[in-house]
Amino acid sequence: MQTGNANNMLKELLLKYNRPGPRYTSYPPANFFTEKTSVENFKSVLIKSNKEKPENISLYFHVPFCPQLCHFCGCNTDEMLKMSVVELYFKAMLTEIDNISALLSKDRKVTQIHWGGGTPNSVAFKFIEEVMLKLKNIFTLAPNAEIAMECSPAYISKDYINKLRSVGFNRISLGVQDFNEKVLEVVNRAAPRYPIEEIIADIREAGFEGVNIDLIYGLPLQTEESYLKTIERALKLRPDRLVTFSYAHVPWVKSAQKKLEKYGLPSPEEKLEMLLSGYSKITEAGYEAIGMDHFALMSDELAIAKNEKLLHRNFQGYCTKETTGQVYSFGSTGINQLHDAYFQSAKSTSEYIRLINETGFANIKGYELSIEEKAIRRMINEIMCNGILDFKDLALEFNLSVEALKKICKFEESKFAEFIADNLMHYENNKLNVTENGMMVVRNIAMTFDPNLAENVNMYSKTI
Ligand SMILES: C[S@@+](CC[C@H](N)C(=O)[O-])C[C@H]1O[C@@H](n2cnc3c(N)ncnc32)[C@H](O)[C@@H]1O
Ligand code: SF4
Question: Which of 58, 117, 128, 348 has the smallest number of Cβ neighbours within 10 A?
Answer without folding.
Answer: 348
